[in-house]
Amino acid sequence: MSEVFATTGTIAAIATAVVPQQGSVGIVRVSGSQAMALAQTLFHAPGRQTWESHQILYGYIRHPQTQQLVDEALLLIMKAPRSYTREDVVEFHCHGGIMAVQQVLQLCLENGARLAQPGEFTLRAFLNGRLDLTQAEGIADLVGAKSPQAAQTALAGLQGKLAHPIRQLRANCLDILAEIEARIDFEEDLPPLDDKAIISEIEKIAAEITRLLATKDKGELLRTGLKVAIVGRPNVGKSSLLNAWSQSDRAIVTDLPGTTRDVVESQLVVGGIPVQVLDTAGIRETTDQVEKIGVERSRRAANAADLVLLTIDASVGWTEGDQEIYEQVQHRPLILVINKIDLVEEDASKILQSQIPNLKYKIVTAAAQNQGIDGLEKAILEIIQSEKVQAADMDLAINQRQAAALTQAKISLEQVQATIAQHLPLDFWTIDLRGAIQALGEITGEEVTESVLDKIFSKFCIGK
After folding, report:
1. Cα separation of 308 and 294, whole Å?
2. What is the pLDDT of residue 436?
3. Strand, coil or helix: 288
């Protein structure tokens, strides 16, 4: 392994978020051959408590030299191999906050442990055979999940629902390779190879790979969320729309145009998809230097968004300003939000509908009255569906690394088919078949390089 992940020795790290005056418990995790000895050095368990695996002891953490009391705590013991890392693991469950866990961690480091690298606990679990790479990545996804659906998808990966089909595909490729190599080595003793059967089997494997690749967009959406920018002229109700949607008063709402000077952000969940909503400053020509900066940021937010909500004021109608903004954002996925519809008579509404561009997605709202939000969310989900982000298999969602490996495996299998069609010798068949096997092995970790491990686990938090 590289220096970044030198997995020798006993490691320690704070395993819980450390926030001042927040959280009742803080945990310091220690893993390695000296974990038990370190715990016995620092932890005093009064009475006749037994130091056995999967027991929780009550006691005190003391400085081993001065015997100064550091914290009243619990000690959780998990001896190898029945632990997260399959090494001896102990956890000091201290009082929450900053000082207690920091002092306990410092004592661990002073008495033989070293500070864990990001993701090193999970890396050790992988190297010791407790997890494969898809499960390790599932843990990272679960920790970073932004919605219940994202958490469920991460749990599916953690439970091996991605690893199982990948391993089966790799096993099928290995079976084909064995058949071909047997013909190469023992051609005279075996019947001729059935080319059509081989091609049929490769097509089945490629079809399953295609099905798995179809979950990539969904996976990306669940992990990063959908970025939605609310844009429009000043005073059309953008901030009211954000407040009604988020059911909060995140944005200031007044009758004065230009109130919003910067981008205001809110995090929502729509149909299980995390949504980052950006309320932007009204876009218009202005001499106010501060407002100019806000307008420019609005334009940048619109260009960077996955979806734009172009909001207009129904009581004013479609204006030249609306048309100018529309021309700037029409290249983006777009929903036209006709706001303040409660201020317009039915006849005026029909006239307005004839004036605005013929867009597929148009919804009416009265944001100040909390009306029309359901229709807005329905339109957003329809756009997601139309972009085929929702995959058929909702339990699975591959990430970019896994997608790249699957794509490489599919290309290699296509090369095998081309080689067979060209009637090239059997030795040539095996070259690309081995490439497919290697690519599939990279997903689960059966074929993996140090650089891949470094890249994956460096994204983890230190205590995981």
Report:
1. 17
2. 95
3. coil
| Rounded Cα–Cα distance for residues 14 and 27 (Å) | 6
Taking only the tens place, the pLDDT of each residue in 354-365 is: 777 778 888 889
Question: Starting at the edge strand that comes first in sequence, how are the strands of the sheet with 11-14 ordered?
Answer: 43-44, 55-62, 69-78, 89-95, 25-31, 11-14, 114-115
pTM exceeds 0.70 for this model? yes
DSSP string of 330-365, one letter each residue: TTS-EEEEEE-GGGS-HHHHHHHHHHS---S-EEE-
Report DSSP letters for 239-274, one per residue: HHHHHHHHTS--S---SSTT---S-EEEEEEETTEE
* Residue 192: both structure tokens together: 């001729």
Omega of the bond leading into 81 within 30 degrees of 0 (cis): yes
- The mean pLDDT of the chain is 84
Question: d(Cα 216, Cα 222) in Å, to the nearest integer?
Answer: 10
Tokens (6 digits) for 233:
């002229």
Instruction: Express as a percent the part of the chain with pLDDT over 70.
Output: 85
The tokens for 122 are: 């999970």
